[in-house]
């Protein structure tokens, strides 16, 4: 799976302005909604926050992947944000996060959802890439970093 086939350049937000978990997630939901990717924003929001209440999607190492499944989308959609100051996310390692990647997928398409989660996790194991992404000065730079890394 190539993430830049899912992630539109206009769905990258650097810097995120939210200072807490809920506001950062809401900010990325807004980005997807502004790009016309939801049939129903409220349904998408409910799916993501319901999942987040079940267990934090802060996977550790400064990364969070909030996600949800619902009928508000026809295909997997993705937003990427980078916080200038780490945000408390109740992560499994207890550390705040800087990189937040939001996924929303249809309830009947589990495969792409799982593949995207796995691909993101593998990418973030590359410390050089992760640090470069955390230091991205703009949305365009962040998207280009991801695009270049995907094309390696």
How is this fold's topology laid out?
Blueprint: E1 12-13, H1 21-34, H2 41-54, E2 58-60, E3 63-64, E4 67-69, E5 77-87, E6 97-105, H3 110-124, H4 127-134, H5 139-150
Parallel strand pairs: 1-5, 3-6, 4-6
Antiparallel strand pairs: 2-3, 5-6
Helix pairs in contact: 1-2, 4-5
3D structure, described in words:
- The protein is α/β, with parallel strands linked by helices.
- The chain has a single domain, classed as 3-Layer(aba) Sandwich (Mannitol-specific EII, Chain A).
- Helix content is 41%, strand content 20%.
- It has five helices and six strands.
- Strands 1, 2, 3, 4, 5 and 6 form a six-stranded mixed beta sheet that branches.
- The two termini are 13 Å apart.
- The model has no long low-confidence stretch (mean pLDDT 96).
Features:
alpha/beta; 5 helices; 152 residues; single chain; Mannitol-specific EII, Chain A; six-stranded mixed sheet
Which consecutive residue ranges, at least 5 long each, have pLDDT under 50?
none
Alpha-beta classification: alpha/beta
- The CATH topology name reads Mannitol-specific EII, Chain A
Strand content: 15-25%
The CATH class designation is: Alpha Beta
Computed Rg: 14 Å
Number of strands: 6
Q: What is the CATH superfamily?
A: Mannitol-specific EII, Chain A
The average pLDDT is 96
Q: Calculate the terminal CA-CA distance, rounded to whole Å.
A: 13 Å
User: From the structure provided, what is the oligomeric state, counting identical versus distinct chains?
Assistant: single chain
Which architecture would the CATH scheme give at its second level? 3-Layer(aba) Sandwich
- What helical percentage do the residues reach? 40-55%
